[in-house]
TrEMBL record:
Natural source organism: Papillibacter cinnamivorans DSM 12816
Keyword Transferase: yes
Pfam family, one: Methyltransf_18
Keyword set, alphabetical order: Methyltransferase, Transferase
Superkingdom field: Bacteria
Gene Ontology MF terms: tRNA (adenine(22)-N1)-methyltransferase activity
Protein name: tRNA (Adenine22-N1)-methyltransferase
UniProt record, GO biological process: methylation
Length: 239
């Protein structure tokens, strides 16, 4: 049996930090199972249910748990999203390492996640779409955090049921408020990266010259202007 503590990546460590003591957590799309093991051994989760859509990743998670002597303390379920979990079984739902659209579709199929649950979401793509979907579907993001992992900046969202004020395209792209970050300057770097991506997309649209792209180009210009405003706002927040 493994005697060392499991090591989490920077991304999963940041996710774990938001799991409160005594949580009854559900880790959706667990794959390797390191997060549930860490939460039971090093965090103070009371219970963890680990799910995956596919048998192979779930059996990887079972093996990880057995290696750490936790095979009978973590519950494993083969299911799509939250379909195999009852609302009363979890107060903290973690969905990490998936695309923003998949995260939205998992939540859409489990409307109970709007009712008093703590949602820790770590999308790998389509952040603006996910923020917009959450706002329109009756969720509110209360905190955002940035981490750097293998040279990429990743975002973690803390959300729950609630209302979101109207959002500009730039806030959908970058977040509602200055994110927390373990590393100084990361929020500014994130904004600069988003601006560069938006500029590249604008350039591509200008080259295509298709009349139907004019509307999208205008949207990207608004995002760029908004990002410049956010840069000023976030630097004021830091003082
Ligand atoms: C890239 S891994 C992420 C693993 C881990 N959560 C992390 O963040 O490191 C994505 C996992 O989610 C699973 N998955 C994808 N769609 C899912 C769904 N609808 N329900 C449950 N699991 C899903 C995949 O099978 C895969 O094991």
């Amino acid at each position: 049996m493994e005697t060392r503590r499991p090591e989490l990546s920077a991304r999963l460590s940041a996710v774990a930090e938001w799991v409160p003591p005594g949580a009854r957590a559900a880790d959706i799309g667990t794959d390797h199972g390191f997060l549930p093991v860490w939460l039971m051994l090093c965090g103070s989760a009371e219970r963890v249910i680990a799910t995956d859509l596919r048998p192979e990743p779930l059996s990887r998670a079972v093996k990880t748990a057995e290696r750490y002597g936790l095979g009978d303390r973590i519950e494993f379920r083969l299911c799509d999203g939250l379909s195999g979990i009852l609302p009363e079984e979890a107060d903290t739902v973690i969905i990490a390492g998936m695309g923003g659209e998949t995260i939205a579709s998992i939540l859409e199929a489990a409307s109970w996640t709007r009712e008093g649950k703590r949602l820790i979401l770590q999308p790998m793509s389509k952040l603006p779409d996910l923020r917009g979907w959450l706002a329109g579907a009756g969720y509110a993001i209360s905190r955002e955090k940035l981490v750097r992992e293998r040279g990429k900046i990743r975002t973690i969202l803390l959300a729950g049921g609630g209302k979101t004020p109207p959002m500009t395209p730039a806030r959908l792209a970058a977040g509602f408020s200055r994110p927390e970050a373990g590393e100084p300057g990361l929020p500014e770097e994130y904004l600069a990266e988003l601006s560069r991506k938006t500029e590249r997309a604008l350039l591509g649209l200008a080259r295509s010259g298709k009349p139907e792209d004019a509307g999208r180009a205008e949207q990207y210009r608004q995002v760029l202007e908004g990002l410049a405003e956010l840069k000023k706002e976030w630097s004021i927040c830091r003082r």
